[in-house]
Amino acid sequence: MTQAKVRTRFAPSPTGFIHLGNIRSALYPWAFARAMGGDFILRIEDTDVERSTQASVDVILEGMAWLRLDHDEGPYYQMQRMARYREVLAQLQASGHVYPCYMSMAELDALRERQTAAKEKPRYDGTWRPEPGKQLPPVPEGVQPVLRFKTPKDGVVAWDDKCKGRIEFQNSELDDLVIARPAQNGEAVGTPTYNFCVCVDDIDMRITHVIRGDDHVNNTPRQIHIFEALGAQVPVFAHLPTVLNEQGEKMSKRNGAKAVTQYRDEGYLPDAMVNYLARLGWSHGDDEIFSRAQFLEWFNLDHLGRSAGQFDEAKLRWVNAQHMKALDDFELARLVAPFVENEGVAPAALDERLPRICALFKDRCETLVDLARWVRVFYLDRVERNAEDYARHVTPEAGPLLDAFATAMATVEWNKEAIAAAIKQLLKEQGAKMPQLAMPVRVLTVGQAHTPSVDAVLELLGREKILTRLKSR
User: Fold this and answer.
1) Which domains does the chain show, CATH number per domain?
2) Bridge partners, residue 210, by sequence
3) Which residues bind ATP (predicted)?
4) Does the N-terminal or the C-terminal CB of the chain have fewer CB atoms within 10 Å?
5) Does the model's pTM come out above 0.70?
6) What b/e readout covers 11-38, taking b as 16+ CB neighbours within 10 angstroms?
């Protein structure tokens, strides 16, 4: 018997923006499908019509595209599959796995109050569940029923979770799940509910591995029962621990989580984000920094962590900085160009110096925004000067040395070596030390006292800008 091709899925609800905790639940099934030569399916679970929005769908698609989590099929939309769900509901009714329940919400609430008062677990009591020899209550007039699934009363439902290990539920602890709401507006069957739709989707889409957040653990026994009632193969489950924010709370919009696309706008690299997110719940030995190709080569479900991962923005910035340092200078120049334009530099102004400027400053930067703020200094006419650095270094005592430096720069041959030689000669003639000249020159020309090698910075800045900025002190 040949093993089925691996097929995984990401099935977000478009009821808000997608944050890092959500996108990690896309990263692992994507990576597993890619590592195993399988397929990755995108499914939009939009049955919550009141809260689902197209804007949220757009952010999901945009965030996944930025991170290059490409899908092989989809996006499928559950609201477009209602006819299929109703068809399967009819099959389950015909096979006796589903029955109509006429208990009203008021009756259900009263039942739960009695159970709570008696210190029992609040649950549906099976009033309308058909059993051999059981007399059901008379059907009330004008009431549309919900459809409930007949949960087995005895035994255990269990699975070997690829993340959490063996998980078991006693069937006696589970009541009969509502799998369709009351019919409205002449419908033959009401709107199917989440747990049912998910199973039909996973069967139809031939999903072999369900990799999702551990907030779904309690749904899984329900879904296993539905798979079995439909005679379908139960997929392999892996329930991922929660991602916590920096305060140790579950990451969510309410707790200050940012949309994934905001990290793109803040200058993070997609490969760095993939690297960082991968380490929030999976590991490969002690490796902290790795490429996308290495991640896909190493990834499997055997090294998923069992404890919650905690987001740390400082660590994310460090990971991003390592990826920036490793980037080819021309590729880095291509990526930083839009951010430089956001800093007020006309696209046409960017020239062949850009890759060299990136090479000079990338070791000092954690994001593309950081790098763009250095790059703009080389292209804008005016430079913003750090007030503290200016007061400390651009003093009246530095004036004669700066004047002599300007004279030397006006005639020197324009390359790094000649500029370095001219500075050395000037310091010798003036009896000055390098910091006495370099610090005020840096403040006047690029706005800050600390930069990479002053001769390299000056060569890239250009004679005209240097002389103009030295005069404007």
Assistant:
1) 262-378 (1.10.1160.10), 387-471 (1.10.10.350)
2) 237
3) 253
4) N
5) yes
6) bbbbebbbbbbbbbbbbbbbbbbbbbeb
